[in-house]
């Protein structure tokens, strides 16, 4: 053994070849943390000092090659002073460059995922062999930063600026065929042949058949583009990338600028330029928020894995109530491998649900994500029925009938008599109390909420709602089923609206106050979309459905009358009474036309302004900042109350629920991280300036204590 560490070993093989192997002890994956980087530096030094070594292959002992840097260390690094962060990053670059400068050929065998720093390690080698099925990429922009260990330097010098910009600015993972076509890797082989292929390539390079120094040299030189070629490549790319990324995500555009700025320099100076760009981005609130979201997502996965250990396997599911929602649930279950019964009392509803599932499956076939045979298999996994004939075999039932407590109670009581004593019943209610619905059941311990968001196939969140009598087994099995469906479950406790709708309706309350203050709803939409929401509140209400919002608001007002009950009529009331139900009826705040792709497209409808006159007050002068405050304060304060009331266990769950459930702007990190970014004391002061608007704007005693003590939701 030439070198033995906890993450890296170097072992002598035949023909003067050494194998540098990443295999972190007691870890499921390889990643670049401080220990691994330190050992890599030591291992390279041992190789350089060993005259018997004539070539090196780099392998992994894990299923993935290297998943990237240890993101758990990011926020600590980002908090360093700029000079210290720059020095730390350049030190790591020195390790990668030392590997690249070894006086012998180097070959990397990419057996699985090689992302971020994992791919940057591969780029520092002379040759790259990739297994079929492996995937590689530079996803750093998704964390609000750029590659910082040579990705923006080596990749464009290997594959050209255009290809490098596409890979880096998109942050996508790429398959082996794409990597070979572009030139990121030199060969693609079957997984079982990977090691031998790497050894063979290394032997041939040692023998002089392949010139490793010639392969290495372009990565050390300036980018091979003259000034005119650079201008054409970079200026057009900057415009396109800026348009795709939008104004709130600076990293993709900064990556293009970094490649351009470094184009006229050799490797070492180019790496300095890259590190300076990384430091600049690391100090942004966007990077802190996106890295925070990554940590939050990991926390959700950790909790879900804990529940899965207690879960029963759902081998057959059922959904009660076909139609669009039921069809979407059936599709999601079937396409992820769990057969499901689709039950309704009306044949036309069954056909509607099957049609929805078939449409979604057809779209996946068109996009190449499913073969026709896989589509047929998924459709066959959805078994339509008008009776309870096969329900004795069902492990979990999702009730998705009309949002009416009496109807839901009747249906749940009926199906309880048709299933096994251990079958889990879950209601897809969006607002109705699980404790209330449980009163109709003989086995309330087997009952919980399972709230999907529309459209089911696109929205990642599922709220799993725990009632007072819900057992741990019911929650565990429902969480595991949601994960099996490809969803992100968050376990919340019961209250009207649960987490997401409880927080969303105070936001709509802010919208109603702005309408009453004479602010045009189209301006409000524009301001909130500029703030970062995917759609403004008026457009969102049209998509949700004015009738759905009208009903949900009544439930919320009954549940929290001191904050959410309004005595007067609102814009939602006016539109509901006029039959303007949003997209579903073709008219709401906006009118809707079908575009060439068959999707509804919103257009302005002047007639709605006349209709809304009774609820529009005398116009007031409000700045865009005022509009944002009046909209965001109630949402953020209600999120604080959900955390304080124990509806969610932690701040991470609260923020991820909003990002995944209603599209809270990811670059702001969630409602609680948004409060942290403003400063808790500054947020409380802002709320106090608007407290005359009503109880929704009143900070809690707990939040005032946090402000006084200088505490944050995220340390």
UniProtKB/TrEMBL annotation:
| Residue span, 3-hydroxyacyl-CoA dehydrogenase NAD binding domain | 317-495
Q: Which CDD domains match?
A: crotonase-like
Q: In which pathway does it act?
A: Lipid metabolism; fatty acid beta-oxidation
EC number annotated for this UniProt entry:
4.2.1.17
- Answer whether the UniProt record assigns the keyword Electron transport to this protein: no
Where in the numbering of this chain does the 3-hydroxyacyl-CoA dehydrogenase C-terminal domain appear? 497-592
Indicate the segments annotated as coiled coil, or none if absent: none
Pfam families attached here? 3HCDH, 3HCDH_N, ECH_1
Annotated PROSITE patterns: 3HCDH
Q: What class of enzyme is it?
A: lyase
Per its UniProt entry, which superkingdom is the organism in? Bacteria
UniProt keyword list: Fatty acid metabolism, Isomerase, Lipid degradation, Lipid metabolism, Lyase, Multifunctional enzyme, Oxidoreductase
- Which NCBIfam families does the UniProt entry name for this protein? FadB, PRK11730.1
Q: Which family does it belong to?
A: In the N-terminal section; belongs to the enoyl-CoA hydratase/isomerase family. In the central section; belongs to the 3-hydroxyacyl-CoA dehydrogenase family.
The entry's protein name is enoyl-CoA hydratase
Record gene name? fadB
